[in-house]
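Lecture notes, unit on protein representations.

Consider one protein chain, 204 amino acids long.
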Amino acid sequence: MLVLSPVCGSSLSDRLEMAKKLANAIFYVHLYGERYPSTISLVGFKVIRNADGRTYPVADRRWEANLYRHPRRQGSDSDYYVMQHDIYSLGVCLLEIGIWETFVAYDGPNGAAQPSKALGLAQDRQELQSGVTLKAHLVALSRSRALRANMGTKYSKVVETCLTCLDEDSMHFGDEQAFQDEEGVAVGIRYIETIMGMINAICV
C-alpha cells in the first residue's frame, strides 16, 4: 500500500516524479538485490527465495494484501514467482499515485481495512474475493477518464501495461516463452524497454 499525503506530492509533476522513482526502485531491487535509491522505502517483500531461485506461495486471503498481488500469486495454489508479478504490483501502485488516493482505508471498526472510495468497491463485493475480477476492475480504472484527466493518456497506458503484463494478449509481456532464461535477463531488458521507457518519456 502507498502512504499518500493529501498535502505533499499532489501536483502533477510531483506525482509523476514519485511514479518514476518507484518504478526505478523496483528495477533496482531486481538488478542489485535490495539496494535501491534511498528516496524510496519499499516494504512488504515477504516471499523468500530458495537457493534454486524459486519463490514459494504464501497463503494470505486478506483482500488488502491480495489487492497488490497478481491473481496467479493469490491463495494456496499460487504460481511460482516471475518478475511480471512485481510489474503487476507496480501497476496497482502507479494507479493509486495517478488518482492520488490509496485503495485501502483503515477507518473500519478497530482500524480494520476498508476499501476506499477511490477503489469503488464495497467490502462484501465479489470483486474483492476474486483475484480475476478484482484485476479486471483495476484494469478498468486504468482506462478510466479520471486517471487520464489526472495524469494523461501516456501514464494511463503505462498503468494498463503493468496490470496486463501476464495476459496472453499483452503486447509487451504476453509471450512467457520469451522470459524463460535462468537469470531473468530477458525480463529485465524488456522491462527497461517498456515500463521504464514509457514512464520516463512522459514530460510535464
